[in-house]
Every structure is written in C-alpha cells, then in structure tokens.
Design goal:
Layout: E1 2-8, E2 12-19, E3 24-31, E4 43-44, H1 46-63, E5 70-77, E6 83-85, E7 95-96, H2 104-111, H3 116-120, H4 129-139, H5 141-145, E8 149-151, H6 153-162, E9 166-168, H7 169-172, E10 178-179, E11 184-185, H8 187-192, E12 202-204, E13 209-212, H9 215-220, E14 228-230, E15 233-234, H10 235-242, E16 251-255, E17 259-265, E18 277-280, E19 287-293, H11 297-307, H12 311-318, E20 329-331, E21 349-351, H13 359-382, E22 391-394, H14 401-411, E23 415-418, H15 425-438, H16 442-445, E24 451-455, H17 462-482
Parallel strand pairs: 1-5, 5-14, 5-15, 9-12, 16-22, 22-23
Antiparallel strand pairs: 1-2, 2-3, 4-7, 6-8, 10-11, 13-14, 16-17, 17-19, 18-19, 20-21, 23-24
Helix pairs in contact: 2-4, 10-15, 11-13, 12-13, 13-14
Length: 483
C-alpha cells in the first residue's frame, strides 16, 4: 500500500508518495502564481490548482510504479481562502487568499460584535474567511447572491477528488464561522456575516474519512480498488502532523514566507486578546495555538531582491557567529502584522542607517527584525500557558545557522533541526491519509523525526539581545504613531 500527501501552497502544489511504513518514495511539484488586481488584494484561480494536481499526478505515475498501490490521500492547504461556488459547483470568482487585506474594515466590524471572539476563540483577522464574504456581499452583490457553497482551498481539492463538499476541523477553524471549542459550525457566527449553514461543507476530523476517490479519477490515474480521501488539514496543522507535534510541550517554528510559532495543546485554551490563533488540530480532541507574522523569510527575500543578492548569499556573508546587535533596526511589517498587533495597515522600515552602514549590517537587521517578531509570538503563547521546552525548526530560513542561533537566544529555548528529509505539510497529509485508510491510531503514525542538530542559546549575548528586543517593541509604537 502507498499513501499520498498533497500540499496545496500559495505558490505551488507538492505531492508526496509514502509507503506503508510512512517512508517517502518520491515527490513531484508544480507551480502557479497569484494575481494582485489592486493594492492589498491577492487572488488565485482554483483551476490552476487542479491543473497543477493533474500534472503532478501524471508525473508521479510515470516516475514511481508504487503509485498504482495507492490507498489513501490527505490534502493540506493554505488556510482562510474563500472559494465561492454556484449551484452547479462552478467557481464564481477567483479565490481570495489568506494574505489579502481588502476586508480589514469588515474584519474590524465582525471582531467588535459581541460573542464573536467567545465562540470562534480568535480575533477576526482581515485574512480570515468570514470578513471576505462580508466584503463580497457589499462589493459584489450578484456574486454573493449566487453562492451555494464556500470552500477553503483544501476543501476545494477534496471536492475535486471526491465529488463531495467536505472540510476538516483544523482548516475550518480559521474561517470565524466555527465554534472552535465544540468543533461545529456556529449559526450565530455564520449569521454575523450573512451566511447560512447549508452554504458550508460537511465537517470531519482531519484523520477521518472524507470520501473516496471518484471513479473517473481512479481510472484516469490507473488505480484499482477504493482510495480513501481523509479530511486533511490546514497547512500548519498538517506540518504539525509531519513533525509529530501532538502533545503539550511539542511545537515548531517555521521560517517560510510567513513565520509561524506553533504549540500543540491537549485542551482548548483560547486567548484572542493576545492575537494568538487557537485552532482545532487535525486529530480529534486536540487543538493547537500559534503566533503568525506575515513577512518572515519573505523579508529576507525582499531585501535580497533590492540588493541584487540571493538570500543564501546574504546569510553566508554574515557568517555563523552571533555578535551583539548593532545600530541598524528593521521592522518586518512589509505586509502588516498579525501576532501580536493585528495591524493590517502598519508597514516596515529601517532605522539607524548611516553612511557607514554596510549590506551585512542591513542583513543582520533583517534577520534580527524577523527574530524579534517571532519573539512577540513566543511571549504571546507564553501568556496562554503554552510551554515549549524544545522547538523544531523548519522552512527555508532554517538553513541559516545564524538565524537559528539568534532565535534560540531570544527564546532562551533550544531549536532542533531534523535529519534531512520529509517532515512538512505534505508528509502530514500523507499520514492523515494513512490513518483514514487503515484505521491505525494517530499516535502510531504521527511521530517526531530524528534530530540531526540542536542549536542552543548563546549566553554571551543574551542580555544585549534582550535589551535590543525591548527597543524593537518601543520602535513599533513609534512607527505606529506616525503611520
């Protein structure tokens, strides 16, 4: 038997095939892009996701003979996107993505509504799904009237795979329509954004069966026998499954386009006032909390573009030795910020520049600014009593030892690097597909990876970085006052 994990990302789709021991057999990738019709808007055509999946499967079939033994599929997807369907299942408009900020006014209105935070367990962020629908209601009324179903990106792939409208709890928790404690749609929350329960997909746990692969697709893919499709997960819940973060004290920091600090929780401990996200885990009876910054490795990529370097060239130039912070400060708010500020309008900047400032000084400032932003999330999580004794580091930015040393020092917690291999959202999706198809216990499949290296705090410079962090916090307030 083999199992397939599908990671539907913002810039591309990755398909990972694993065997019945959960070991990777091979993977394929396809890429696509988002469009930005106006400032702050970010959209994608769901047809691009389907084309990418079809191409990835075609390549996988041709490359890996084991694909013919496929028995289970799990989809992980970027969260919060609003895919609007008509009565015949047709897409009514491009999907409005998680990093679209057009509905910030609608988010503020919903967030100020009595009972919304209490039921959803979260601040209503502009990137969430519910405010997007309020925006569509106001600005595209004809589209709004035609809506029969609203699906998140992963749920849309589930629809393509199974022919059924079904979504998992972890992804649905980021809509502001789910009662996250009870793990069910809330009529009150739906009504607050003029939506109805019948417009929502059926809910399942991420490790449960959502349906079976459509016969037409099974034939097209050259498969015999039933293939189970799991509920799947939002991308971060899937990544938690990929690195084995199920229990209290387990979590990860992800240095991707955005930055995520995630902690697994056994119970439901909402703290919306901290701007920490409290979502259902992909496993029944479990939750997770995370702080999110919108421009992590994206800040480094931005600076690389304007300085004519690659991110790896920039980080190589600063070396591995952690020196005390310099005069240059970078505020990493290129796209606004979530945790802890919930501020879609704030923008970033450099301070402390002089004629003697070098590119290496600015690179260190960018790395420090992102690390300070992640420290904001660490402190916010601590206020919910989440405990992280050791944190696994994932994402492209984890290749920089300097960055990891800096983050470990600011958190005063060791960071662990897995042995090179699979441990992300695609593996988490494959694991969920395996659990749904075989009925094995989640704990027997969702295990931690072998650790290759541990990066520990640098005691020599901890106090100086703590002082610099407090200055960073004050700089945010100053920047806010002039923007």
């Amino acid at each position: 038997m083999t199992f397939l994990g599908i990671d539907l990302g913002t810039s591309g789709l990755r398909a990972l095939l694993v065997n019945e021991e959960g070991q990777p057999i091979g993977s394929t990738e396809q890429h696509y892009s988002a469009t930005h019709p106006q400032h702050g808007w970010s959209e994608q055509n769901p047809a691009d996701w389907i084309a990418a999946l079809d191409a990835a499967i075609c390549e996988m079939r041709a490359t890996y003979s084991e694909f013919s033994d496929l028995r289970g599929i799990g989809v992980a997807g970027h969260m919060h996107g609003a895919t609007l369907l008509g009565k015949a299942g047709e897409v009514l408009r491009p999907c409005i993505l998680w990093n679209d900020s057009r509905s910030h006014a609608e988010a503020g209105q919903l967030d100020a509504t009595d009972g919304v935070r209490d039921l959803s367990g979260n601040i209503v962020f502009p990137g969430f799904t519910a405010p997007k629908l309020k925006w569509v209601c106001k600005n595209e009324p004809e589209v709004f009237k035609a809506i029969a179903k609203v699906l998140l990106p992963a749920a849309y792939l589930n629809f393509y795979l199974t022919g059924d409208f079904v979504a998992d709890m972890s992804d649905s928790a980021g809509t502001s329509w789910l009662d996250v404690g009870k793990r069910e749609w809330s009529d009150f929350l739906l009504d607050a954004s003029h939506m109805r329960r019948e417009q929502m997909p059926r809910l399942v746990e991420g490790s449960e069966t959502a349906g079976t692969l459509r016969k037409e697709l099974a034939q097209e893919w050259g498969l015999n026998g039933a293939v189970v499709v799991a509920g799947g997960a939002g991308d971060n819940a899937a990544a938690a499954c990929g690195i084995g973060a199920l229990n209290e004290g387990q979590g990860f920091v992800s240095l991707g386009t955005s930055g995520v600090l995630l902690a697994a929780r056994h119970g439901y401990h909402p703290a919306p006032e901290t701007a920490v996200h409290t979502f259902c885990h992909a496993i029944p009876g479990r939750w997770y909390q995370m702080g999110v910054m919108l421009s992590a490795a994206d800040s480094l990529s931005w600076f690389a573009r304007i300085s004519g370097q690659t991110p790896s060239e920039l980080t190589a130039a600063v070396g591995d030795c952690l020196n005390a912070p310099g005069e240059v400060r970078f505020l990493p708010y290129l796209s606004g910020e979530r945790t802890p500020h919930n501020d879609a309008e704030i923008r970033g900047g450099f301070t402390g520049l002089s004629t003697g400032t070098t590119r290496e000084d600015m690179t260190r400032a960018v790395l420090q600014g992102v690390a300070f932003g992640l420290r904001d999330s660490y402190d916010a999580l601590a206020r919910t009593d989440a405990k992280l004794d050791k944190i696994i580091a994932i994402g492209g930015g984890s290749a920089s030892h300097y960055w990891l040393k800096l983050i470990s020092t600011l958190f005063d917690v060791p960071l662990q690097l897995p042995v090179s291999g699979e441990f992300g959202a695609a593996l988490g999706g494959a694991r969920l597909g395996m659990i749904a198809a075989t009925g094995v216990s989640p704990e027997s499949v969702i295990t931690s990876p072998q650790i290759n290296k541990e990066v520990r705090p640098d005691e020599r410079v901890r106090d100086s970085f703590e002082e610099a962090y407090q200055g960073f916090r004050a700089a945010y307030q100053g920047l806010k006052s002039i923007q």
